[in-house]
Structures are given as C-alpha cells and as structure tokens.
C-alpha cells in the first residue's frame, strides 16, 4: 500500500474529490493546513503597520491506495489540482506498513 | 459640563422628560465600556483576548463602588481650592434626597451621579488598550482604583465641577475631551514608559485576531456615544443637546472617511480597522467640541482628526514606545485636536457665546483650550507614571516573560477565549489518577472500558 499526500490550494478540493471518486477511491482525509513554497506569502496592513504573512492557507489531502494504483492516482490528483499558477502545491506518495479498518479489523488492502 | 440652564426666578421643578432622557443616556454610556472591551479585544492576539476584555469590564465593578463611596463627592462636591470637591452628603450617596435636584438643573442628583459614574467607569478602561498582553490583573485592578482616586475624580472636578479651575476659566469641554480622552491617553503614555514594551514588539507580527469584534465594538461605541455627548447637556430644554447629537454623527462620519482616504493613498487599501479607528477618532474629537461648532465645523473637526490620528498611530514604531492598541494615537491625539479646534471653530451661537478664531473671537478661547489641554496632559502623565512605578516596584506590573509569550489568558484567568477543536482541547478531569505506565495493550484496553460519557 501507499499513502498519497497532496498539499494544494483549498478551492481545488471539489475537483480532486470528484476525480478520485471517478477513479474509484472510496475514502480520503482532508486537513486544513498552512505553509509556503515558492509562492511565499502576502502583505497585510493594520493601522499602517505592514505585515508579511508567510503562511498561506492550504488543504492537505491523504489517500491510502494499493501499490498498483499509486502512480496513476498521483497523476489524477496533480491534474485535478493544477491551475497553472504559482502556489499550486505538491503531491507525493510514501509506502505504508499497516492499515486496519477499525470497525471490522480487516487488514492490508482489504482495509482500504 | 456647560453652565446651567437658567430658569428665571422660580426654582426648577423635576422634569420627568429630562430625567427619563438622562437615565437612558446613562445606560448608553454604560454600554460603551463593554463596547470598548470588544473594540480592544478583537485587536489583540488570540492568547490575550480574555484579559483585554476583562481589563475594561473590571472597571464596571471597581470604579462603580469607588464612585458611590467617595468618587462623586471628590468630583462634584463643594469646591475646595479649585482642585477637588467634597460633600459629606455625597459620601456613599447617603445624604441625597430622592427628589433633590442637581444644581440649577431639573433632574435629580441621583440621575446626575449615575450619568457621571458611567464616565468614571469608561475612562480608566480606555487606558487598558496601551497595556495589552503584559499586565498582571491584580496590578491593573489596583492601578484603576488608585488612578480613579487621584487622577480621574480630581480632573473631573477641575473641568466640570462648580469651582474647578478649568470650569471657572472657561475651558470648553462639552463631554470629556480633556477629562476623559486626554486624561486616559496621557495616563497610557505614563504607564507604558514605566512598564515597557511587549515581548517581540516591532519584531513579531501582532495582527488583530478578530476584526469583526473590533467592528462590533466600534459600532456599539458609536451608538453609546450619543448618550455620552448629547446627554452631557443634562436636558433638552433648549436644543443644544440635539446639536451635539447631530455633530456627533457628522464628525464621526467625516473622520471615518478621512482615515480611509489617508490609508488608501498611503497604504493602498481601505481597511476595516481603519474604518473602525477613524470612527472612534471622530467620536473622540467631537466630544469636547460638539456643543460649540456648526455641523460644517463638525465635518472639519472630524476630517482633521481622522487624518492626524491615522498619522499618529505610526509614531510608536518610530519613537519606540509600545502603545499596543493606539490609545495615544487615537484618544490622546484625538482629544487634543478636538479640544484645540474649539478655539478655531466655536461659532458662539450654541452652548456659549465664546467664539473661536475663525468666527472673529481672536486667540482668547484657543489660549484657554491650550491651557486646559496642557495641564490635564501633564498632571495625568506624571501622576500615572508615579502610580505605575510604585506598583511596579512593589507587587510588579508585568507578568513574567514566559507567561506573556505563552498567553496571559491562561495565566491570569485560567481560560481560553475560543475552543474550535472537535476534540475539545483533549481535556481530562483534574482528579484523573496517575497510574504507572504499563506498556501493555491489555492495560490500555482496561483503562478505556465503560468510559463512554459524552453527553
């Protein structure tokens, strides 16, 4: 199994969700996150004091998939997340040792 | 407070209309203290929200009690040497008849006393904005009590008390430009010069955590201010209070627009905080002036205050004093502007016949205004700094650096302002037994058996 993690622009969530559903992924986890890459932050001004806000709001999507699907799913997510502008984010995958469905105790690919 | 409404020959009768109006105005002024709490509370970072709210709110407790015990007597009792008042009947408000009228007015003494009480509550609360994030709550409570006693009560007597030196000299302060705003602003400066800056001032970003709260506070301040200003004429027999009401609205509008315009040109955006701050700057500036200027004059007063206060809030970064929420930039500067502009824009046709420079009155009124401003500023600055220094050297004014950084709310109030986490902050009852770690799966299972208690 692999864990695909995507840190992307929040407004792309719906597209990514739809693309994953169309592919056949049954579940995912979404977390609100903040960070910066090459995009850096933006400037805000309060009573004339200017602040550079480095951390930009992002969402972090996590999906557990079978090894064979991983490469393809990374492509699916990247395609759905892309706007072509700076700040589109990153997608990566890492190997996973164990996965258990809490309700039934099923393990491995059966738990997905 | 303006000179009395003269009703020839006869003693005034209690006016139900004016009494009712003044009680409503008193309630409006009371609202300004919680409104100020929200105005300030939204401007601090999340970790000190509750402390900021409490610094204002506690004044409703402390100053109310002091006012009843002796404050009203010191401020509005029989004059002693033009500096303070004293009247044994006013101590504890115990010797005042239910239908006894205030001076030459047609409202009961009780009504005047409670209206002025609300001013006394608000003024120390104004100071708190300069002290965000770092002052021990007990030290602040002690400071409020001492400051009200040796600064606010006497200064209120100077300006509004029969026989007070500024009152007798003819300094025009309709509703509190000197006694409230310059007084609080100068005190803020005095205290921060003693206690110093917040940890990370000019280095860490200190963004307001909730501008909607700031806006809510500013809106409620604006609303309450009608009671503060229009009520300060103590009745409606001659229309002056209505002029004050109109000028309050007009100057505030002008100041908000002026602040926003300055900001747009200088910093490129119309900010919410700018709109709220501009409105408050206008309210402050029209407070001393609204009973002596025309509505067009009020536009000028508001616009000048809006621009100058917007500029003044940047001084702290250049000069290096940490006036956290700009009490000096808004209240001191706004109060000074409003008080001095009386000397230019007074028409001589509303609350008194004193004319300003632009209406052919020469420099006479301007000189009186400047003296009122300078003495109030100097007295409050020096005495407040001494009070803060004494408290700082005895019980200490500041929380420790660690506590300031991790957040004063948890330290001083044992609370946090918001709980947005679905996990409820992961709280455990304080009585949870401390079992030795077993490091076995069975022990973990046993510990969580039958603990489904979520209501």
How would you describe this protein?
The complex is a heterodimer of chains A (112) and B (455). Helix content of chain A is 23%, strand content 37%. Chain A is of the alpha+beta class and 112 residues long. In chain A, strand 3 and strand 4 (49-53) form a beta hairpin. Chain A has one domain (2-111): Alpha-Beta Plaits. In chain A, strands 2-5-1-6 form a four-stranded antiparallel sheet, with helices on one face. A two-stranded antiparallel sheet of chain A has the order 3-4. Chain A is elongated, with a radius of gyration of 17 Å. Chain A contains two helices and six strands; from the N terminus they run βαββββαβ. Chain A has helices spanning 13-23, 67-81, and strands spanning 2-8, 29-35, 42-46, 49-53, 56-65, 89-95. Chain B has 455 residues and is an all-alpha fold. Chain B has one domain (16-409): Ammonium transporter AmtB like domains (Ammonium transporter fold, Orthogonal Bundle), CATH 1.10.3430.10. Chain B is built from 16 helices and two strands. Chain B starts with 15 loop residues before the first helix and ends in an 8-residue tail after the last helix. The mean pLDDT of chain B is 92. The A-B interface holds A 44-51, 53 and B 205, 207-208, 263, 266-269, 271, 273-274, 277, 310, 313-314, 317, 326, 329. Chain B: This is Ammonium transporter. Chain B: Residues 420-455 are annotated as: Disordered.
Average pLDDT reading of chain A: 92
Structural class of chain B: mainly alpha
Strand content of chain B: under 5%
CATH top level of chain A is: Alpha Beta
> Per the principal axes of the C-alpha atoms, what is the gross shape of chain A?
elongated
**Count of DSSP H/I helices of chain B:** 16
Number of distinct beta strands of chain B: 2
Q: Which sequence of SSEs, written as H and E, runs from N to C of chain A?
A: EHEEEEHE
Question: Percent range for helical residues of chain B?
Answer: 55-70%
H-E string of chain B = HHEEHHHHHHHHHHHHHH
Per CATH, the architecture of chain B is Orthogonal Bundle
Residues in β-strands, percent of chain A? 35-45%
Main sheet strand line-up of chain A = 2-5-1-6
Major beta sheet of chain B, specifics?
2 strands, antiparallel
- Order of strands, main sheet of chain B, comes to 1-2
Distance between the termini of chain B: 57 Å
